[in-house]
Design a protein that fits this description.
The structure is a single chain. This protein is an alpha+beta fold. About 55% of the residues lie in helices and about 15% in strands. The chain has two domains: about 150 residues, Electron Transport, Fmn-binding Protein, Chain A (Pnp Oxidase, Chain A, Roll); about 130 residues, Four Helix Bundle (Hemerythrin (Met), subunit A). Strand 1 and strand 2 form a beta hairpin. The two termini are about 35 Å apart. This is Hemerythrin HHE cation binding domain-containingprotein. InterPro entries: F420H2_quin_Rdtase (IPR004378), Hemerythrin-like (IPR012312), Split_barrel_FMN-bd (IPR012349).
Length: about 300
């Protein structure tokens, strides 16, 4: 979702260096979003409710100091894309210049904090991905029409793991589950609002969450469930049920991918598949939390 025209976090304005100026509205707004994001595991309200948001901490190009900004993002497989729109203003945002000078940054997604490397996309790749974003959300196209600069597209690729935002295992599990709930809800809303054409970015959004969900369940089967089975052998029937539910979800994911791959696929036609996946996954996540969260909380 392209942030609304004039959204404060997309622009920066210098304040006089003399005396001690009042906090600039841009900085105050940014800080409020940052605090809400961190307090609510990536959920924020207001104009950004339901949108995809990250916190990026860059190194100042001139100062060398860390600067944190909330930015909208687009899924792109194993990387994410951020767009330096600055609300369609005439200048690139400060965080973009920071990434040009220092491409390694810290990313917070509400569940995990990790180190990433930024790549400024150029040429045909930049044009293709910006067009893909603008097709899905005309706000990006409006920003580009309002400025003479080519709005940059930046790809962020994770290069190092960081600590979970919550700390203890129970909070981590719940945070991961809520992230999947939130993303699938966003994908469904995008399909419902997109009209008759399955746009490329919406397809990428859906495939990305499908791949991430499959990877999460694979790790649970091999790691968490195995460890919990050793520590709590009485849980064998419940863990068997959870593994069976993973297989059911995997079947639904395969069916959804197959539908996405059809040349005649439409958002309306995909909604029943998405709804089945959401319903099955919600039942599974709720049961898993009922069984595992109390034990993880005790262990912590």
């Amino acid at each position: 979702m392209a942030p609304e025209k004039g959204s404060l976090f997309l622009t920066t304005t210098a304040t006089p260096s003399s005396a001690t100026p009042e906090p600039h509205p841009v900085h105050a707004f940014n800080q409020a979003v940052i605090e809400e994001f961190r307090a609510n595991r990536g959920r924020v309200g207001g104009p950004f409710e339901g949108g995809r948001l990250l916190l990026i901490t860059t190194t100042g190009a001139r100062s060398g100091r860390p600067h944190t900004n909330p930015v909208g993002y687009l899924p792109d497989g194993d990387r994410v894309l951020i767009i330096a729109s600055a609300g369609g203003g005439p200048h690139h945002p400060a965080w973009y210049h920071n990434l040009v000078a220092h491409p390694v940054l810290t990313v917070e997604d509400g569940t995990f904090t990790y180190e990433a490397r930024a790549e400024i996309l150029t040429g045909e790749e930049r044009d293709l991905l910006f067009a893909r974003a603008a097709e899905a959300d005309q706000g990006w196209a409006e920003y580009q029409r309002g400025t003479t600069r080519a709005i940059p597209v930046v790809a962020l690729t994770q290069i190092g793991a960081g600590p979970p935002a919550g700390g203890d295992p129970a909070a981590l599990l719940l945070g991961v589950h809520d992230a999947f709930r939130r993303e699938l809800s966003t994908v469904r809303k995008e399909f419902a609002a997109s009209g008759p054409t399955l746009m490329a970015q919406l397809k990428v959004n859906c495939l990305t969450v499908c791949d991430n969900l499959h990877a999460h369940h694979t790790m649970e089967d091999r790691g968490l469930f195995t460890a919990m089975g050793r520590q709590h052998p009485q849980l064998a029937p419940q863990l068997d049920r959870l593994r069976a539910e993973h297989e059911t979800v995997a079947t639904l994911l395969a069916e959804l991918r197959a539908t996405l791959g059809r040349t005649d696929a439409t958002p309306t036609g995909l909604l029943p598949d998405v709804d089945r996946l959401i319903a099955e996954l919600e039942a599974h996540l709720t049961y898993e939390e009922e069984i595992l969260l109390p034990l993880l909380e005790q262990a912590a």
